Amino acid sequence: MIKSMTGYGIATTDSGSTKYTVEIKSLNSKFLELSLRLPKAFSDKEFQLRTDCNKQIERGKVNLSITIEQADTQTRAAGIDTVLLQHYYKQLKQVADELNEPGGNLLQLALGLPEVVKFDEETLSDEQWKLTEKTFKQAMANFQQFRDDEGRVLENELKGRVALITQNLESVVLEEPKRLAVIRERLENFLSETVGAENIDNNRLEQELIYYIDKLDVTEEKVRLKSHCDYFLETLKSDDANGKKLGFISQEIGREINTLGSKANDAAIQKLVVGMKEELEKIKEQLLNVL
Known about the structure:
Blueprint: E1 7-14, E2 18-27, E3 32-37, H1 46-57, E4 60-70, E5 77-80, H2 82-98, H3 106-111, E6 117-119, H4 126-194, H5 202-215, H6 219-237, H7 243-264, H8 267-287
Parallel strand pairs: 3-4
Antiparallel strand pairs: 1-2, 2-4, 5-6
Helix pairs in contact: 4-6, 4-8, 6-7, 7-8
């Protein structure tokens, strides 16, 4: 079964005094591009988180963020940078005076500016990490479930596209006998008009017809195209299904379709070939998002 590279998972754990949130998002990419946004206290856990993501996510452009919210911000406040606070306050007061604006809430505004209030986030307790790790595992499970669900949608889409290619191939099989008869008639008419029917060497004509029709024969292309489509569907069902392998098979399908089109020499078959190419392009677009 295939998985989508697009995924989303979020989980939250609330211990009463602290709320832990882990969010994982991914888009398609040829490789794993992992971006982490962590609180400063988690700096020594970054390697472990990256290792876990490498093992479980495999490929994709991934953003992982962890946030911790304290119910009471005073419990984690370590102090106020008074020098920076005074600096901000003086600047705010100067601007307010220049604009003739009241400055009643300047102190409150200054307290909310960056680095004024210092928080104790330098250390991470074992209990905090256990709760965070639990939240991470739940978010990863939700993320993988999202990928599985999207993969099922992609699988059905791909099966439908391959089925349309196969239907067109079956139509080619029905059209081919008509094509050979038209080619034979066209050659005979051409020779009759150019050299005259009475001057045609029928034995030589039969030899040339056999040679020419053999050059336009698409039996091998039809067999290989059907085989590649079957292999594509088998790979979709297998446990080791992956976007790269399916991409290689789609390339082989494309080669047979192109050869079939170049040898068709028939408007009806060319129309069916164009339909196959359209479906194959849609398949290739979808495969870009398959893990």
